[in-house]
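If you are new to this repository, start here. Below is one unmodified record pulled from the training split, so you can see the exact layout before writing a loader.
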Amino acid sequence: MQPVDEEKIRREKDEHNVELRKRDREDKFTKRRNMQPTEKTWIKVNDHWKQFYLLSDLPEILGSISKGGDEHCLFAAQALRKMLSVEVDPPIQQIIDAGVVAHLIAWLQRTDFSQLQFEAAWTLTNIASGTHQHCHSILEKGCASHLIALLQSQNEDVREQAVWALGNIGGDSAHCRDLILQSGALPMLIECVRQTTRQTMIKNGSWAISNLCRGKPNPQYAFVSCAVATLAELVKNQSEPELLADCCWALSHLSDGGSDRIQAVIDTGVGLRLNELLLHHLHNVQLPAMRTLGNFATGSDSQTQYLIQIGALNNITTCLSSPKKTVRKEAVWTISNIAAGTQDQVAALLSASVYPTIIKMLETEDYEIKKEGVWAISNAVSGGNPAVAAYFMSIGAIQGLCGLMSQKDTRMISVALDGLASILKQCQVHHTAPDGSNPAALKVEECGGLDKLEELQSHPNSGVYEKVEKLISTYFESEETQDGLLNLLAGQNFKF
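And here is the target side for that same chain:
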C-alpha cells in the first residue's frame, strides 16, 4: 500500500478552493476558590478558634504568627484561609499586604506537619484564585516549586490541595501555565489522578490538567502530550459533567494542530465516547466533544473518515437542531470540514441528509452560522461531481446561496459565488435542458439571483467583481444579447 501523501491532499484541496478552518478558541482558563465546608480534624481544635474570621481579626492572626510555635502557626494558617473562603469579595489584597505570603510558603515546607502544609496550601489556593497581580505576588516568592513538591506528599489531603492551587495558578494566564509546565508538574499531576480512587482528587486533578493543556497561545505540545492518554481514559470512564467538559476541552486543544496530534487522540479510542457525548443533556459537554471531533475533520482524509466509521454523522446531524447556537455552529463547522474531504465523504454527508437543514439555516440563522453553512455547501460542490451539483440544485441550494449575495461580509459573498459557480458549471456541462438552457441558471433568475449578481458588479472588492463578471458573462448573456451588442458597436462611427 502506498503511504498517504498528506501534503498532496492539502494541495489538491487548495486547488478546488476548499478550506479547512480552525475554530477560534472560545473556552477560557478557569479558576476557583477552595470553599469546602468540611473541616479536617487532624488535631484537636482549641475552643477559641472560630468558624469565621473578619479583617478585624487580622491583628490577632499576625500576632499569633509572631509568637511562633506549631499551634500558633496552625491557628494563623487556618484563620487566614477561613477569611478568604467567603463567597463575596474575599480580602486577598489586604492579606497579601499584611506580609503573610512568605510565612505561608515557609509552612508549605513543613514536611513534619501535614496539617499546617494543608492549611497553607489552601490559603495560597484562594490567593491564586484572585487577579493576575494576586497570583503573581505568590509566584514571585517561589511558591510554585513548593506546591509542586507537595504533589509527592504522603498525605492525600495535602496532595489534593496542592493540585487545586496549581490548577488556579495554571489557569491564571499562559505565562503562569507555561511556568508550571516547564517546572515538570504535569506528569506529577497525572500520577496524582491515576493513583487515586478519591473522586474529588480525580475531579480537581482533571481540571488542573485541563488548565495546563489549554489557552492562547497553545502550550508547547512536547510539554502536554503526556496528558492525552489520561484525559482520554477520564472521558471514557467518568460521568460527572464538569469533569467531562474540562477533559474534552483539553483534548480539543491537544488535537488542534497537525495530523500527528489528531492521530494521538484517535489512537486512544476515545472517539466513540466523544460521539456519545454529542447527545449529552448538557451543552457544556456537547460543545467541547464536538470541537474535538471537528478537529479530526481538519486532518487527513483517513482521519476524517474515522468520524464516518464511528457513526458520528448521525449525532452531528442531531446537533444541527440543538437549542444552543454554539452547538449548532460547531456542528455546521464540522460538516464543512468533512465536506472538504473525498467524494465518498461528501456522499456520506448527502446520505445523512444534513444539507436541507443547513440550507434552511442560511435563511434563518445569524451571521456566524450562515458563515459556516456557506462553507459547508461550497466545499461539497467544489469537487466537480455532477450528481452532487444536481442534488444541491434540487434541495434549494441556489436560492440559499443567492440569498447571501446581499451580505456585507465580502468573504461570505466570495465563498457563496464559488459555490454557485460550481453548481452552474456542472449543470451547464451535464444537465442541460432539451432547449439548451442551463437549469441552474434558470433557478438563479427565478429567485432574483441575477438581479443581485448585477448589483454586485459595482462591489468595491475586485475579487468579488471579477467572479461576478465571469458568472454573468458565462451563464447569463444570451446569444441575442451578444449579437445585439456587436451590431451596436459595428454601427458606431468612432472618431479619434
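Two things worth knowing about this chain: The radius of gyration is 30 Å. The mean pLDDT is 90.
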